């Protein structure tokens, strides 16, 4: 086999479909986010409209100071896996903070949210005897991979469809161990799961619940504990999983659960045991971010206002976007080539960076521009975004409202 030919041909197919991914080479500026320099385009100044640093915490003075101080105090890396010399005081403190955030007995840190889902779900589903995993159809790739890796039997329930979930649960012996895996805010459509009703089913059918709150932690609930906190449901969820890389602006992932469950995953999860711990400075930065958002609602309030404003302005000019109860604004394009073209023109002509979201991140035919306003977007940024979209929609003769709801 000619390996290089194979790689190149496969990539050509991807390009032909419009699904080839091109990275933007950005340099963010602390204190000026969402502004960044596009190093790949003559150092052009751009405004980022698709970041998951939802609140601008990546540049928060408390976070930066904690990282600087810790770096100066203890050096760069953790120097080992958690098991072999890599557990530092910063990790221990962060886990205590996260357990408190979710009102759980314990929390366990991982190097990313992806790894936390992969390792925790993979371990639980593999180790619990005869475990059946019930997985929402739109679960994130990291959950899917973890479940697959476990080799446990799995059943996919139609997205947010309680009747279908119940049907699958009811078909099993009550005594069989079951794990219901789902998300709170689904990141691409921005819809929110009926958590209370899922917990009711879990109670009725003797199932454990595993909730990915990656797109909700920091953003919802009086202390940023997520949708489950907002709805008073944290104690009904067995495992809450979150990231420190999105609203918290740093990196890392975690689960919060009972002491026994966290200790179990700590003791058996390959993806926890055999990898170097996060740098202490990173843990300290994340901790500062979590602590800040526990006591401050200003960022959450401003975030909500900015999201509402962008939605209203899109409505004013008839740009179709999915109506949802979260902070994510998906502007539907429905074609990968057009989606990429729109994104390219926004960048080239308007200095606006919105990455096209194509397959496999979303199903084919539902390609979109996913807009994520933040408290640090100015009124002028919003004006520029709206006028650019208005120009583009006219130029490309794209459909205006009414649009079929997705
Ligand atoms: C981004 C994401 C993850 C992974 O979190 P990282 O910290 O980025 O690895 C997990 N679940 C969902 C739903 C996500 O969108």
Outline the structure in words.
The chain has 406 residues and is an alpha/beta fold. It folds into 2 domains: 3-54 and 298-400, Aspartate Aminotransferase, domain 1 (Alpha-Beta Complex); 60-295, 3-Layer(aba) Sandwich (Aspartate Aminotransferase, domain 2), CATH 3.40.640.10. The chain is built from 15 helices and 14 strands. The protein has helices spanning 3-17, 61-74, 82-86, 89-101, 113-127, 141-150, 162-170, 195-204, 227-230, 259-268, 270-273, 280-295, 298-316, 336-350, 379-395, and strands at 26-28, 35-38, 44-48, 106-110, 132-136, 153-157, 178-183, 207-212, 239-243, 253-257, 329-332, 352-353, 356-357, 368-371. The chain has a 7-stranded mixed beta sheet with strand order 4-10-9-8-7-5-6, with helices on both faces. It has a 4-stranded mixed beta sheet with strand order 1-2-3-12. A 3-stranded antiparallel beta sheet has the order 11-14-13. Helix 6 links the parallel strand 5 (132-136) and strand 6 (153-157). The longest helix has 19 residues, at 298-316. The site of pyridoxal-5'-phosphate has 14 residues, from helix 5. Homodimer. It comes from Cognatiyoonia koreensis. One of its GO terms (molecular function) is 5-aminolevulinate synthase activity. Its cofactor is pyridoxal 5'-phosphate. One of its GO terms (biological process) is protoporphyrinogen IX biosynthetic process.
């Amino acid at each position: 086999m000619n390996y290089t030919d194979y790689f190149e041909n496969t990539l050509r197919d991807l390009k032909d479909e419009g699904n080839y991914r091109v990275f933007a080479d950005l340099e963010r500026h602390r204190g000026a986010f969402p502004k960044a320099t596009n190093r790949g385009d003559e150092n052009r100044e751009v405004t980022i409209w698709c970041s998951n640093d939802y609140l601008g915490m990546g540049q928060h003075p408390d976070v930066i100071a904690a990282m600087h101080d810790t770096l100066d105090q203890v050096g760069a890396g953790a120097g080992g896996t958690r098991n072999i010399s890599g557990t530092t005081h910063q990790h221990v403190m962060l886990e205590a903070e996260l357990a408190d955030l979710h009102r759980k007995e314990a929390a366990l840190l991982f190097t990313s949210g992806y790894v936390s889902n992969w390792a925790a779900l993979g371990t639980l589903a593999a180790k619990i005897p005869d475990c059946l995993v019930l997985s929402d159809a739109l679960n994130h790739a990291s959950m899917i991979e973890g479940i697959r890796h476990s080799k446990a039997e799995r059943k996919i329930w139609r997205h947010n469809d309680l009747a279908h979930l119940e049907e699958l649960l009811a078909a099993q012996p009550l005594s069989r161990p079951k794990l219901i895996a789902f998300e709170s805010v689904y990141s691409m459509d921005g819809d929110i799961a009926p958590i209370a009703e899922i917990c009711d089913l879990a109670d009725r059918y003797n199932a454990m619940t595993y909730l990915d709150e990656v797109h909700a932690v920091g953003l919802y609930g009086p202390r940023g504990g997520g949708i489950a906190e907002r709805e008073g449901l944290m104690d009904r969820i067995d495992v809450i999983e979150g990231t420190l890389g999105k609203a918290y602006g740093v990196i890392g992932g975690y689960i919060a659960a009972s002491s026994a469950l966290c200790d179990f995953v700590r003791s058996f999860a390959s993806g926890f045991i055999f990898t170097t711990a996060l740098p202490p400075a990173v843990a300290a930065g994340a901790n500062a971010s979590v602590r800040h958002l526990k006591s401050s609602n200003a960022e959450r309030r401003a975030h909500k206002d900015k999201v509402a404003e962008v939605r209203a302005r899109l409505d004013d000019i008839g740009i179709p976007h999915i109506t949802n109860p979260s902070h994510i604004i998906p502007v539907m394009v429905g074609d990968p080539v057009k989606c990429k073209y729109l994104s390219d023109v926004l960048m080239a002509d308007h200095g606006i960076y919105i990455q096209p979201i194509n397959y496999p991140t979303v199903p084919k035919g539902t390609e979109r521009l996913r807009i994520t306003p933040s408290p640090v977007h100015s009124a002028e940024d919003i004006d520029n975004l709206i006028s650019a979209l208005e120009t583009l929609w006219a130029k490309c003769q794209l459909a205006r409202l009414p649009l079929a709801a997705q």
